[in-house]
Amino acid sequence: MRSLATALEICGLTDVGKLRDHNEDAISFDTDIGLVILADGMGGYNAGEVASGIATQVMSEVMRAQLAAMPAHIKTAGSLWPVAHEMLLIAVDRSNSLIFQTAEQHPQCAGMGTTLVGALFYDNHLAVAHVGDSRAYRFRQQELTQLSRDHSFLQEQIDAGLLTVAEARYAPHKNLVTRAVGIAPMVQTELHEYAVEPDDIYLFCSDGLSDMLDDASIEAILSLQGNNLTLATQTLVEQANAMGGKDNISVVLVRIRRDFGVDDGIWKKVGGWFGASN
Questions:
Q1: Roughly how many angstroms between the first and final C-alpha of the chain, as a whole number?
Q2: Rounded distance, CA 61 to CA 56, Å?
Q3: How are the residues of the chain apportioned to helix, strand and coil, as percentages rounded to the nearest 5?
Q4: How far apart are CA 245 and CA 129, in angstroms?
Q5: Angstrom distance (rounded) from CA 258 to CA 196
Q6: Which helix (H) or strand (E) holds 243?
Q7: pLDDT in tens, 206-217
Q8: What angle do helix axes 47-68 and 83-105 make, rounded to 10 degrees?
Q9: What positions does the domain PPM-type phosphatase occupy (predicted)?
Q10: Distance CA 254, CA 203 (A)
C-alpha cells in the first residue's frame, strides 16, 4: 500500500479568538494513517474544553487501536473499505460514552458535550463522520463545496424554508445544535464517503470560522493561498479574527498530493457495500 505520509499534506491551527478567555476547540491529525479530528466543546466551568479534549483523544486512540488490530488479509490488501465506516462510528460512540460518563461523575462537567467532525483518508477516498455544526468542505478546481450538513436549529429553519442561507448568517441562536457528542448515552452520527482527486484541498473547521467567513471568502483565500497550506491556515484564522473572532477558531487543511489508491480485488468485491459520493 502506498504511504499516506507522502500522499497527504495536513496543516492545522486552533485559536482562542477575540472574545473568549479560553479555547474549547480541539484538533488532532495524523498524516501516517490519514486521520483528522476536530471538536468544538460546550458546557460551563470550562467543561467544553474537557469534552472536546476527550473526543479528540479517545477517537484518535480508538482509531489507531482498530487499525493496529485489523485482520491480516485486509492489511495485505491495503484497502480499508468498507470497515473504515464502522471504525469511525465505533470511535465516535466510544468518545460519546466517555464524555457522558465523565459528565455524570463530575458535577462541574454536567451537561457538557462537543460537536465533532472526523475524517479518514484511504484508497483515494475520504470517509467523513460528523455530529453538530463543525464542518467539512472540499476545494476542487477553484470551487468550494460544503460536504457536511449542520445539525442545528438554524439549518432546520433553512430546510423548512423559513430562512434563506443569507438571512441565516444574521439570525439569532446561531449556535444551537440539534446533535452533540456526550450529551446523551447514545449519539447519532452522520457519515458519508467521497472520492478524492489529486490537488483537492479538504477543509475541516469549527463554527468560529464558518460564522465569521462566508463560503465566498473562504474560497477566495484558498484560491489565492491554497499552494501554501500553512499560510492558508493562518490567513483563515486571521481573517475570522478580523471579522470579529466571536468564538474559538479551528481549521485543518488537507491537500491530496497524489494518488493513493490500492489495486486489489477486495475493493471490487465489497465496493458495493457503500456508495461513494462525488
A1: 23
A2: 9
A3: 40, 25, 35
A4: 26
A5: 10
A6: none
A7: 999 999 999 999
A8: 140
A9: 10-256
A10: 7
> Where in the chain are the domains?
7-261
Conformation bin of residue 253: beta by default, left when phi > 0, alpha when psi is -120 to 50? beta
Secondary-structure class of domain 7-261 per CATH: alpha beta
Q: Which three cell numbers stand for residue 132?
A: 453538530
Q: Grid coordinates standing for 200?
A: 483537492
Residue 19's Cα: distance from chain center in Å? 24
| Length of the chain measured in residues | 278
| pLDDT 10s digits, 34-81 | 999 999 999 877 799 999 999 999 999 999 999 888 776 555 444 566
Q: Which residue type sits at 32? A: D
DSSP symbols for 141-164: TTEEEE-S---BHHHHHHHTTSS-
Phi/psi of residue 66, each to 5°? -65, -40
C-alpha cell at 156: 432546520
pTM of the model: 0.90
Nearest to 220 by CA among 141, 142, 130, 147: 142
Residue with cell string 433553512: 158
Residue type for 225, please? Q
